[in-house]
Each structure stands twice: as C-alpha cells, then as structure tokens.
Amino acid sequence: MTKKSILTRTAGIAATALMLAWLSPAAAADEPAKTPLTLDRAIRLVRENNPALKAAAEEITAADARITQSRSAWFPQISASAGYTWLDTVSKMSFGNSGELQFMPNDNYDAKVTARATLIDFGKRGTNVNLAKSGKKTAEESLELARRELSYQTVQHFYGILFLRENLRVEEKEIVALNKALDYTTKRYQAGTATRFDVLSTEVRIAATRNRTLDIEHELRRSELTLRRLTGIAENAPLSLQGSFVLTPKAPDNSGLVAQALEQRLELQLSRENERAAKLHRSLAMKQGMPVVTGSLSWGVTNGYQPDIYEMRNNVAAGLHLEIPLFTGFRTSAERQESAALMRAATQRRIDTEEQVKSDVEATIHALQTASEKITTTEIQVQQAELAARHVRARYENGMATALDLLDTEASLSQAELARLQAAYAYVMSSYTLKRVTGEVFW
C-alpha cells in the first residue's frame, strides 16, 4: 500500500468519524419523534437535560470542595520565601591601625521554608468542618428537591397539554354540531320557516366557540413550549404524548399520610438542616472570644553571621504564639447576638414548614375526594345532556323546537363534557399532588 493510499484511507476514516459525531446529536434530538412521549420518559428527559439540575449538581461539587477547604485548618501551612536586602549604612567599628570591623553585610540574602500550624483553638476548626458538611447536605437535598419540583412541573404540563387537547376536541365537536345546525337553520330560513335572528344566533354561537378555541390553542402552545424547555425536546420535533384521563376514582388511605409527609418532605428536611447549621454558627460565634495558640518552625539559609558575614549558613527558628482577643469593638458580642437570632428564626421556620406540610396534606386529600365525587356527578350530567341533545335535535328537525333551544342544548352538552374532563384532570393532578405533598417519589 502506497503512502498516498494510506493518507487517503486515513482521511476517509476521519471524515466518517466526524460525520457520525455530527449526526449523533441529531439522532438523539429526533428520538422523541420516533416514539410517543410517556410521562415517565418526559420526567427522565428533564432529569437528564435540565440546566437547573446540572447547576444544582455543580453546587454539590462546590460544597464538597468547601469541606476540603475547612479541613485544611487541621494541617500545617507550609510556605517558602526568599529575599534580598541591600543596607547602607551598616554597623562598623575601627580598632586603631588594624582597620575596621563590619558587623553586617551590605548585601543580605535570606531563603527559608516555614511551617505554621494552629495547635489549640477550642474547637473552632471542628465546627467549621461540620458547617461545611451541613452545607453539602443542604446542597444534596436542594438538588433532590429541585428534581422533584421539576418532575412535578413536568406532570402539570404533561397532563395540562392532554387536558387542553381534549378541551379543544370538545370545542371542535361543538363547532361541528353548530355548523350542522346552521346549515339546517339556513335551509329553514330560505324556506320561510325560520327567521334571520335564528341564523344570526347560530352564527354568534359559532363565533364565540371559535374564540374559545383560539384561547385554548394559545394556552396549548405555551404549555408545549414549556414542556419542550423542561425536557430539552427540539422545537421541530413532534410532541406526541401518550396518556389519558381514563381512570377509576378511589378514596385515598388517609392513615399515616401526615406522619409520612413529616418524615419524607424534603422542604422539612431542609428546614431541619438549616436549623442545625444555625446552631453550629451559634457555637462558632460563642468560641470567637477564645484564645488561639499557633506554632511555627522555619529552616533556611542566610548570611550576616560572624566571623564571616558573607557566608550563607543554615538557621532554624521555632516559636509559639498565643493570641487572646481582649476587645474587638463589640464585634464578638454582636456576632453572638446575630447567631442566636438566626437560630431562633431557623427554629420558627422549621415549625412553620411543619404546619404547612400538615395543611398541604389535608387540603390535597380534600381536593382528591372532591374531584372523585365530581367525576361521578359529571358523568351523570353528560349522559343527561347527550339524551337531551338527541331529543332536541329530533324535535328541531321536525319543527317542534326553536333554534335557541337547539343552541342551548348543544352548549349544555359541551359544558357537561368539559366539566367531566375538568373533574378527571383535577383528580389526576390531585393524585400526583398528594404524592408530592407526602414526599413520595413518583418517577
């Protein structure tokens, strides 16, 4: 094989690899278009692609680095230094005719390595490490809370899109029925058995329904854009959702839900961790007035020693340093007051969160029960409205009912179907809300 053919083959392989690398993101972007988007898959896409979750994960990394930083206080701090100093005038002494004696050189050189360490600080370092660990735990719980909140938002928009699409279908069904009524009314008007007012009334109902359809389409577009942003699905990819509101309502098991929420809700765990961090800050503030003992050890070379002041010689220095804060301009007492107030505030926020959790559970249980009852009542309303619509349509075609009767009946049927859809949507969302307020993971 010639050198030219080898280069040509290598270039071809490289071009193929680049093409595959370029096509792979596009294939990943087209993946949602190939299969219907289920709720579980939508939540998985959110957890994989959402930038807010990636940012929260980086905050955990930063918190872990802060732990290492706080632990560095346990180790000696080692530094190296070197310097040159030129002095004039220097100390000299004359001894008659024997000349003068110089006690220090004009050119002074110094190089050393120094190790410093805190020996006693009455627990300040340990408290700082515990604070850093608390910060990492808070970051981890914040990440999980963000995951749950974004997952719940995904549930809201997922079923919101399904609801709006079904709502649109109901409105379009009413438009079809109204158009059919308009055609029949127009024929009757042309035959002289109906008035122009009947035609106009039907046209007004159609226009009003189309206006509602436009509003629904706008809300649907907004929800689809939000879901795409959460999941990372491309704008040009079809958004085919797989889900429905077909369900069998059942009464929730209320026993132990409040206790489960108090144990599993991440908001409450965060408030407890914040309370613990506030106590650590209080402990650290109480130790600010305590003395600190540090030690140092240096080794290096320097000149300036007799009898040859120009010779570089080894030297060692060791020392202990005691620092006792006597007066800090009232800073220490103010820090203690601040930390005590923040600790009390954290306790009150934790109590408020507990009460909010209990209230959320009770309100959601009531909403779920209400939605379950509405599903039953609205189903009966739809059946009655369908029966009434069939009767009025037949009567109107036989000239036994007015156009206003027909329009009112069609509107009642549409409202009944929409009420049933709203009840089913409310029941589904209340079911997921109950899982959310009790701290249950539903993905």
What do these coordinates show?
This protein has 443 residues and is of the alpha+beta class. The chain folds into 2 domains: 42-75 and 121-290 and 325-437, Up-down Bundle (Outer membrane efflux proteins (OEP)), CATH 1.20.1600; 84-120 and 293-324, no CATH class. The chain has helices spanning 3-34, 39-49, 51-71, 124-191, 196-231, 257-264, 266-286, 331-397, 403-437, and strands at residues 77-86, 92-94, 100-102, 107-120, 292-302, 313-323. The strands form 2 sheets. It has a 4-stranded antiparallel beta sheet, with no helix packed on it. A hairpin with a 5-residue loop joins strand 2 and strand 3. Helix 2 crosses helix 4 (124-191), helix 4 runs antiparallel to helix 9 and helix 6 (257-264) crosses helix 8 (331-397). It is elongated. It starts with a helix and ends in a 6-residue tail after the last helix. The model is unreliable at 1-33 (pLDDT under 50).
Brief overview:
This protein is an alpha+beta fold. The chain has helices spanning 3-34, 39-49, 51-71, 124-191, 196-231, 257-264, 266-286, 331-397, 403-437, and strands at residues 77-86, 92-94, 100-102, 107-120, 292-302, 313-323.
Strand and helix map with partners:
Blueprint: H1 3-34, H2 39-49, H3 51-71, E1 77-86, E2 92-94, E3 100-102, E4 107-120, H4 124-191, H5 196-231, H6 257-264, H7 266-286, E5 292-302, E6 313-323, H8 331-397, H9 403-437
Antiparallel strand pairs: 1-4, 2-3, 4-5, 5-6
Helix pairs in contact: 2-4, 3-4, 4-5, 4-7, 4-9, 6-8, 7-8, 8-9
